[in-house]
Design a protein that fits this description.
alpha/beta, single chain, four-stranded mixed β-sheet, five-stranded mixed β-sheet, 203 residues
Length: 203
Amino acid sequence: MTTIVALISLQSYATAQVNNSSQPNFSQVSPQVESNPVPLQSNLPNYSERKRRLLLKLQHPIQPIIPNTSKREIHLLLKLNERKLYVYQGDSLQASYPVAIGKPGWETPTGKFKIIHMVQNPAWENPFVPNREIIPPKSSNNPLGERWIGFWTDGKDEIGFHGTPSVKSVGQAVSHGCVRMYNHDVRKLYELVKIGTPVLVTK
């Protein structure tokens, strides 16, 4: 009797094992990683293409655009004893012009200044007469000529570079402090400078 029960028990166990193998319990099955998974879709180029692009970048590096810091601003040097105005860009002389300067008692001021006022075809207000006579722009007898480039002021009057109808005065000390230039020269100077351009006046 004992032997028959044991056989029935073994048969029941074998049947259960067969049934369990045909209907696995998924709650006890560990997840497995597929050996050949389907690749995800990507917008990135494949490895070979990325490598090729990297090599191209290494062979032909992109050069950054570097500002030209060697190009310096224009500055002016007025030498009163020479009656000459020099235009520099950095240490490079760009132009020089003959000028007339202030006469004794009305000397052109020396020192470091900046251009503060620029006018094309200026009018002139005569400061030496009671009614402050005004001479209009482009007048043949306008003492300021065709351009005004002011670099000094006391809050009331200005001193600056300007053209002149008195061409024979250029090269002499005859003005009331201003710097006279030929009209064709002051037109050129006007195109080279701007408000804030440094002006150094020396003896």
